[in-house]
Amino acid sequence: MLAISGVHTFYGAIEALKGVSLEVEAGEISTLIGSNGAGKSTLLMTICGSPRARWGRVLFEGKDITSMPTHEIVQLGIAQSPEGRRIFSRMTVYENLQMGAIRNTEDRFERNVSRVFELFPRLKERRNQRGGTLSGGEQQMLAVARALMSEPRMLLLDEPSLGLAPMIVKQIFEVIQQINQDDQVTVFLVEQNAFHALRLAHRGYVMVNGNITMSGTGKELLVNPEVRAAYLEGGH
After folding, report:
1. Residues 156 and 226 placed together within one structural domain of the fold
2. pLDDT per residue over 85-120, tens digit each?
3. How far is CA 58 from CA 20, 115, 143, in A?
4. Residue 141: which residues within 8 A CB-CB, separation 6 or more?
5. Measured CA distances, 74 to 103, 124, 128, 202, 236 (Å)
6. Band of pLDDT at residue 72, cut at 50, 70 and 90
7. Which of 9-21 are b and which e, b meaning 16 or more Cβ less than 10 Å from the residue's Cβ?
8. Are residues 212 and 145 both part of a single domain?
9. Are residues 163 and 69 in the same domain?
10. 114 and 59, same structural domain?
11. Cα 114 from chain centroid?
């Protein structure tokens, strides 16, 4: 579904991605793990066209989207929940959901609102509350829900567990699995929480300093000694 081939991305003279190649199969959850600053978020942003790859190609369902404007990429069925949530803090929960519904007709909008409220009942309780007054966990729920409002076929999730309490992290990952299984949404997940991510993922990749250094199924990487030593704190 998504094929990234030899992608190099720069910030000025600094090369953040150094020939990254990977694939995300339709219907699967794929995860990219790595330490802070490895280039994981840059890869997701490159997929969405900001920043752009200087070299290499990004294909979505066989279509070259490397140089395509971001709004056209979204129209193809790719949505991103960014690192740091980036919700509209002065808007209500409902208004934030409206902002994500760029591909919806009115009837589809109401259906999608009902679906995200089913996934995140807390948001339904706070539908008229301003986003900036929500807890960190609720803001993360809203960021994911807003992305889902565009009816994506592929959902890019950037550090959805960052800074959240364990109970909220568990709920977020359960929802990720649910939208993959029940709604048939392909998920590409970037995470520092390698244990939860690899347990959930069909396929995983490890990124170090802008390079993919290892790949395999989630189960294979969970038991890999190098991965365990570097990212799983002795396997826990």
Report:
1. yes
2. 789 899 999 999 999 887 666 778 888 999 999 999
3. 10, 30, 25
4. 120, 122, 123, 172, 175
5. 9, 25, 27, 24, 37
6. very high
7. bbeeeeebbeebe
8. no
9. yes
10. no
11. 22
Dist CA 217 CA 106 (whole Å): 40
Domain range spanning residue 183? Answer: 1-77+152-236
What SS3 class is residue 158?
strand
Question: Do both 135 and 169 map to the same domain?
Answer: no
Read off the tokens for 39: 């280039």
Residue 235 has pLDDT above 80, yes or no: no
User: Which of these, 105, 89, 92, 91, lies nearest to 149 by C-alpha position?
Assistant: 105
**Domain with 192 in it: what CATH number?**
3.40.50.300
| 128 in the same domain as 60 | no
Q: How many domains does the chain have?
A: 2
Express each pLDDT in 176-224 by its tens digit.
Answer: 999 999 999 999 999 888 999 999 999 999 999 999 999 999 999 999 9
Please tell me whether the overall predicted TM-score, pTM, comes out greater than 0.70 for this model.
yes
Alpha carbons 162 and 137: distance in angstroms, whole number: 9
CA–CA separation, 203 and 31 (whole Å):
6
